[in-house]
TrEMBL record, chain A:
Transmembrane segments: none annotated. Residues 107-199 form the ChrR-like cupin domain. SUPFAM superfamilies: RmlC-like cupins (SSF51182). It comes from Aliikangiella marina. It comes from the Bacteria. InterPro entries: Anti-sigma_ChrR (IPR012807), Anti_sigma_zinc_sf (IPR041916), ChrR-like_cupin_dom (IPR025979), RmlC-like_jellyroll (IPR014710), RmlC_Cupin_sf (IPR011051). This is Anti-sigma factor. It holds the Pfam family Cupin_7.
UniProtKB/TrEMBL annotation, chain B:
GO terms for biological process: DNA-templated transcription initiation. This is Sigma-70 family RNA polymerase sigma factor. SUPFAM superfamilies: Sigma2 domain of RNA polymerase sigma factors, Sigma3 and sigma4 domains of RNA polymerase sigma factors. Keywords: DNA-binding, Sigma factor, Transcription, Transcription regulation. It comes from Aliikangiella marina. It comes from the Bacteria. The keyword DNA-binding applies. InterPro entries: RNA_pol_sigma-70-like (IPR039425), RNA_pol_sigma-70_dom (IPR014284), RNA_pol_sigma70_r2 (IPR007627), RNA_pol_sigma70_r4 (IPR007630), RNA_pol_sigma_r2 (IPR013325), RNA_pol_sigma_r3/r4-like (IPR013324), WH-like_DNA-bd_sf (IPR036388).
């Protein structure tokens, strides 16, 4: 895989600082990408070091800690000794979002509600309840040309199925791409079509001749 | 005082390490630390025989640190409850701990981080479209818990190609969730210097870990 989140984005992800939608996007890539799995593992060591560097308990508080420990033992006697481990455990994504991660990883797209925005493009909104970002799946038919557009703000894309290309490169499943308002591009889907997760903090703006119509459709 | 504080920070915050970076073999480097090795044994005892004495030792060492970690991140009110949850998870998931892959502190960090993510996510969902920036601003109260004199660390591998200032700044800003201003005050720098250290640190990391495509 060629396209990865930048190291700063990975740092924010690894330290748990990303908004839910972005964590979902980086998490999907993390799940796919061996290289980023290694990078995240390295950055997590820094997290472990940070934890170790925290002050330990003062001598006179030992008793309080022991009391808390007794309470803990009381609690573990009441629960299952072994928890089921999710396959998404390693991702820095909220557990409550594992279901959507699972759907996307397993490419379980059939029961999504697709809206047609042009003859060869469909959209499906994913409700992440993330006030800062809009999360959508975009589905392109085989060889579909996506009208030239720019982005107000940033757009984060993770290719989930199929592939697409633009003048910058060729993006296969798992690729993570970030574009900002300066990137004007007109991607073309591969011969098997393409499904992407697209996260925007502002809607796309189509700039080609069909632009006004598509802009109207896409809202 | 100023002098002293600077020294304390410089001396012990991050491990001093050889500027020459050898191959990044995390396993070897991680096992080199005898204390880390000892925690691994404890974890394995919890995993294999639900050893409560080993669990207690882990608790006495890590629970106060986990709590401070949450306090540091603006979660004064939730720190205790979350620390409790962290150790429940440690107990339940002990069998999935892989001592070849990570130190115990690293593994616990991921649990601490994910419970924080879960908590913030729940709160976000509760507050649907309310103003969400509240709790994060508890900064002042949390910083009281931070001890400037940090324990000296073992040689640490990942960021050996960063200088100490760069590492300090990254740790404070990304992992301790400090604002540039607070990080600056704690490191005796101006916020401008903090920003430029972050930039240079990210640049070094990019060139070594490869943030962009080749």
């Amino acid at each position: 895989m060629k396209y990865h989140p930048d190291i700063e984005l990975l740092l924010k992800y690894t330290s748990g600082k990303l908004e839910p939608s972005l964590a979902l996007a980086v998490g999907l890539h993390h799940k796919h990408c061996k290289i980023c799995q290694e990078r995240v593992a390295e950055l997590e060591i820094v997290g472990g070091e940070t934890l170790e560097s925290m002050p330990t308990v003062a001598d006179n508080e030992d008793q309080i800690v022991l009391k808390d420990f007794d309470k803990l033992l009381g609690a573990i006697d009441q629960i299952q000794p072994v928890a089921t481990i999710s396959e998404y455990e390693d991702l820095a994504v909220a557990e409550s979002d594992f279901d959507i991660v699972d759907k996307l990883v397993k490419q379980d797209f059939d029961d999504m509600e697709w809206r047609r925005v042009s003859p060869k493009i469909w959209k499906s909104t994913i409700a992440m309840n993330d006030a800062d970002f809009e999360v959508e799946l975009l589905k392109f038919a085989a060889n579909a040309k996506i009208p030239q557009h720019t982005h107000e703000g940033d757009e984060y894309t993770v290719v989930l199925q199929g592939d697409f290309s633009d003048s910058q490169g060729h993006y296969k499943a798992g690729s993570f791409i970030v574009q900002d308002e300066n990137d004007e591009h007109s991607p073309v889907a591969g011969e098997n079509g393409c499904i992407c997760l697209a996260i925007t903090n502002a809607p796309l703006k189509f700039t080609g001749t069909l632009g006004p119509i598509l802009n109207w459709f896409s809202h | 005082m100023q002098q002293e504080r600077q020294q304390a920070t410089n001396l012990v915050y991050w491990p001093v390490s050889s500027p020459k970076r050898q191959s990044v073999n995390m396993t070897n480097l991680q096992t080199a630390d005898p204390q880390a090795q000892c925690w691994k044994q404890h974890m394995l005892a919890v995993a294999s025989s639900q050893d409560r004495a080993a669990f207690q030792s882990l608790y006495l060492h890590f629970a106060p640190k986990v709590k401070s970690f949450y306090l540091n991140q603006g979660m004064a009110r939730q720190a205790e409850e979350l620390t409790h949850e962290v150790f429940i998870k440690i107990w339940q998931k002990a069998a999935s701990y892989n001592s070849e892959k990570a130190n115990v502190s690293t593994w616990i960090f991921t649990i601490v981080r994910n419970l924080r993510i879960d908590y913030l996510r729940r709160r976000r969902l509760d507050e649907v479209s309310q103003d969400e920036t509240h709790d994060v601003g508890e900064d002042g109260e949390l910083d009281l818990g931070v001890d400037l004199s940090r324990k000296k660390k073992q040689v640490q591998q990942v960021f050996t190609y960063l200088n100490e200032e760069q590492r300090n700044v990254l740790q404070k800003v990304y992992f301790e969730d400090k604002s540039h201003q607070i990080a600056a005050a704690e490191l005796d720098m101006t916020p401008g210097v903090v920003k430029s250290r972050i930039r240079s640190a990210l640049k070094v990391l990019r060139s070594h870990l490869g943030g962009e495509d080749k």
